[in-house]
Structure formats: C-alpha cells, structure tokens
C-alpha cells in the first residue's frame, strides 16, 4: 500500500509533532549535536487495516511452522529409513533425510521470519536515546568497600593469629596435588612398548589382501603391497594396537636404483620393506609414486625417498622412514631378519 | 582272433565297437584338428603386429624409440604388455600432448582396432600383462563389501575413499575414478600407469580386482544414493567447510544486513 491511500486524518499534521525534532544548526557552532532525525511513522502505525494485515501475516508464518513440525513428526514415523528418491538437481538421496531436513528447516525459518516481521511492523518503532554511564563506581562506594575489607580483615584476626594464616595458605597450596594424582591415573607410561613391534626373526610377511605369505616372485617391480606379520589376527584384542606399529609397505626396486648402501643390504633382490607409519605424527603413508620412488604422507605432505634409505626430502617429518631388514626363509617365503632397528612412528621424549 | 570272432554276436559287442570307434575319432581329432586353426591364427596375429608396427612408427616411435627401446623423452615399452597400451591409448593419455608432471586423460585418437594392433606390436617386443577379457573385469556378482575393504587398503590413500581422486607431489595427481571403464580400471591396477604402483595378480588376485571394480560401480554410478544429498565433490571437510563458511554464513550475514537496513516507513524521505 502506498502513502496515497492512507486516510488524510491519520497522517501526522507536521513532522514536528513526531518524537525527536531536528535541532537547527547554530551559526557559532556548526558541529553541534544534530540530535535524532525526525521520526517517521510506519504504515501500520497510522493504518489499522495494514496493521491487521501484518498481524495475519505473522500468524500465518507461525501456523506454517506448526504444520511443518507436525509434518516432521509424520515423516519420521511414516518414511522408511532406506527409501531413496530422485530429487533434481541433487540426485538420489534418502527420502527420510530430505523430508526431515525440509520440514524442520521450514518450521524454524517460519518462526524466525514471523518474529522479524512482527518486530519490524507491529512492535514499538520509537527511537530511544540512552546515556552511557562510566563503568567505575563512585568514590564513595569505593571508599566504603575498602573500609569494609579492612574491618573484615581486622575482625578475622588473620594478621595476629599467624598459625591460622600459615596453615590456611599451606592447605590451599596442597589441594591442587589431588588433581596431579588423578591425572597420573591416565597412565601407565608406555615403557618400552614404543620401541618394539611384533616383527622378529623369522616372522613371515603376510599380504594384507590375500592373507597369504609372500614369495619374492609375487612382488613385481613397480608394485605396491601392504603386509603385516604372520600370526596377527584381525579379531585379536590388541590387533589395532599392533597393526598401528607393524604395518609395512613392500615395494620392489631395480637393485641398481637403490642409492643407500644399508637399504640395499637390508633388501632382498631389490624388495624393500618400509614402515607404513609416518615419523611425523603417525599417519599411514602410502601415496607411493612408482617412478620417483617417493612416498607421500597425506596429512602434512612429508615426503620420503624410498630409493635412498627412506630419507625425508620434504615436509615436517624429523626422521627417515624405518626399514625392516628382510630375507627369504628356507621355505621360500619373505621373512623378517629382526625387529625394526629403531622405533617406528612419531618421535617421543625418550626416543633419542 | 578266433576268440574275438566267436564273441561278435555277444549283446555288448556293439557297445564295445562303438566305444573303440569314438576313442579313435577323438584321438585323431586332437592329433590333427587344432593344428589348422592355430596356423591361421598365427598368420592373422603376424598381420596385426605388422599393422601395429606401422602405426607405432608414425605415432609412438619419436618418443619411445623405433624399436620400443625408449629414449630420453619416453620409457622403454619392452615388457609393458598389451594391457598397458590398451589403457594408455584407450584413455587418450597416449600419444602425449606435451611433457609435464603427468599425462592427462583426453579424447581417444585411435580406433579400438588400431589400439589392438598397437597393443599386439608392443606385446611382441616382450611379454607383459595381456588385455583382460570381459569376464575378468565384469563386476557382476562380485563382493562389493570386500571390494570396499580392498579399496581402502590399497587405493584410497591416493584416490579418496570413493575414488574422487586427490593431489600428489609436484603437480602429479591421482585422477578421479568416476565413470572410468571397468576394463581400464582393471588394466591400470595390473600395469601401474605413470606414477601409480602396479597390483599384479600375485598380490591382488583377479577376484580382488573384480571386487574393487564392483565397489567403484556401487559408489559412483548414477543410481548411487547419497543419503544427505549434495556431496559437494565428496572430498570431505575442505569443500564442506568452504561451502559452510562462504554460502552458509554469507547468506546469514546478507539476511541480517537486509533485515536491519530495510525500513518500513509510511513516507520515504
């Protein structure tokens, strides 16, 4: 509705009638406080029909919200959890998730929209000016508080009865020790468990895809295989704890490509076994590039050169990737010569 | 002989004669019959290799050397096998457009018949993985759950949990596996194109490969159900966070500004 349709008698006679008139600029002081701009009425303030219409709009929004909530409950009860529907342009989605999201979203949106419309068109529209007050208390109040504190201290005789004062300070200082003892319960300390893995002399390398032990002929140049020690069972209680240290990457290089003398010594016909655990914070690294022989960690981009002793060539990792020394056993399967020579995974205080 | 002729009217005589005749025909057939088609096959094979050699000389020799021995611009093709050729040429990666960190997938320039000829020629240079037959990679009836587990163990670190691809070092990347022909996925696992490691049958069996292909079909087809809708590229917290911050918070701020700025006065000043 435009202002032309508003009945003439309802319009304020002059803007000066309204709350907050403009102060005329003083010639001597052109930067004087201009005061509030003149108040302007809303349509709803002067036209009761417009106000009624706003009221109905707000009520409608709240009613839609109520219906949406009922629809939400109905959808929750009625729609089976595995039903899928096609919604353009999203694709195939769960009908239940779609219905719950839409109805609850609409219910919440209508409450918000109704409240905003109510506040903007029907609630009081009068400008209000408030003085700011200093945060500091008045000097009298402060003097009173100081006097009260001094009187309290004198009455408690804390200055005169030194024994009470000292034992109280002692008690307050000792109480936090209870927390320290409780935190100690988060232990026990790891002991030597970070230094050792399940790998040991004669442990066979088991392919994690087929769960079969590996022969050297199974591992082709340029291939990548993940292995774990023989005897580790996924259903064992401590499987996760062990595999987090034992996991291996098995790759095969041309022996001539191996730059590190020790790596060549610890390999078998170019087959090398490296720990899969990043030495930075222990993510499983296995983004192996077969042409560059680099292994990349997806977490912080530490990059190791698997043709050069697992040397760190980029990123935050502090140690080279530990290599497992392997050989072939009497029955022709790859096996470990010993445990890792150094702790696998991230650094710890006592690692050295 | 007399004994034999005496029994020629025995009720089982006909059966015995029939069995002897069958064995003789079968034996003769195995001795002579397969020889003829094999010969024909061999000549057809030689022809294919000849055709492949001509194509190779035009399209590949400048980088891989006239005898496939490799040059500074391209690796040796001796022993890469027909499957590698079928993958590289069949996905348009070869012939390469320009040198770079990685050769991208692009429109295929050869027909499948020409690719087969090239593959036959390269296979003749040295034994390598052969082009798989349809029933090797057809995921029909494979174990999708097992495939998911194998994919997470062997592939997800580079290609993302549902094969959306990901970044590698120095401009290299693991491409998305969405909409890739099952045959090409199989060949890639077998041959290890570019910087991808290979997964030979000895460490990832044919059955395992089939399971992985079935898993990829299940999570990436047009009928795949996204329980929440709007996968936002399926890359995880990066794209989801970006969407939340830019579009979610942006919309809220815009609405707040609109609510506060627009006034409902009877007279506009």
TrEMBL record, chain A:
The cytochrome bc1 complex is composed of a cytochrome b (QcrB), the Rieske iron-sulfur protein (QcrA) and a diheme cytochrome c (QcrC) subunit. GO terms for molecular function: 2 iron, 2 sulfur cluster binding; metal ion binding; monooxygenase activity; oxidoreductase activity, acting on paired donors, with incorporation or reduction of molecular oxygen. Its main location: membrane. The keyword Oxidoreductase applies. Residues 1-40 are annotated as: Disordered. It is found in: Cell membrane. This is Cytochrome bc1 complex Rieske iron-sulfur subunit. Belongs to the Rieske iron-sulfur protein family. Residues 245-335 form the Rieske domain. It comes from the Bacteria. Keywords: 2Fe-2S, Cell membrane, Disulfide bond, Electron transport, Iron, Iron-sulfur, Membrane, Metal-binding, Oxidoreductase, Respiratory chain, Transmembrane, Transmembrane helix, Transport. GO terms for cellular component: plasma membrane. The chain crosses the membrane at residues 58-79, 85-116, 163-183. PROSITE patterns: RIESKE. It is a multi-pass membrane protein. Iron-sulfur subunit of the cytochrome bc1 complex, an essential component of the respiratory electron transport chain required for ATP synthesis. The bc1 complex catalyzes the oxidation of menaquinol and the reduction of cytochrome c in the respiratory chain. The bc1 complex operates through a Q-cycle mechanism that couples electron transfer to generation of the proton gradient that drives ATP synthesis. Pfam families: QcrA_N, Rieske. Its cofactor is [2Fe-2S] cluster. SUPFAM superfamilies: ISP domain.
UniProtKB/TrEMBL annotation, chain B:
Keywords: Cell membrane, Electron transport, Heme, Iron, Membrane, Metal-binding, Repeat, Respiratory chain, Signal, Translocase, Transmembrane, Transmembrane helix, Transport. GO terms for cellular component: plasma membrane. Heme c 2 binds at residues 155, 158-159. InterPro entries: bc1_cytC-su, Cyt_c-like_dom, Cyt_c-like_dom_sf, Cytochrome_c_Oxidase_Subunit, TAT_signal. Its EC number is 7.1.1.8. It is a multi-pass membrane protein. Pfam families: Cytochrom_C (PF00034), Cytochrome_CBB3 (PF13442). The chain crosses the membrane at residues 242-261. Heme c 1 binds at residues 60, 63-64. It is an enzyme of class 7 (translocase). It catalyses: a quinol + 2 Fe(III)-[cytochrome c](out) = a quinone + 2 Fe(II)-[cytochrome c](out) + 2 H(+)(out). Residues 47-126, 142-220 form the Cytochrome c domain. Residues 1-35 form the signal peptide. SUPFAM superfamilies: Cytochrome c. It comes from the Bacteria. The cytochrome bc1 complex is composed of a cytochrome b (QcrB), the Rieske iron-sulfur protein (QcrA) and a diheme cytochrome c (QcrC) subunit. This is Cytochrome bc1 complex cytochrome c subunit.
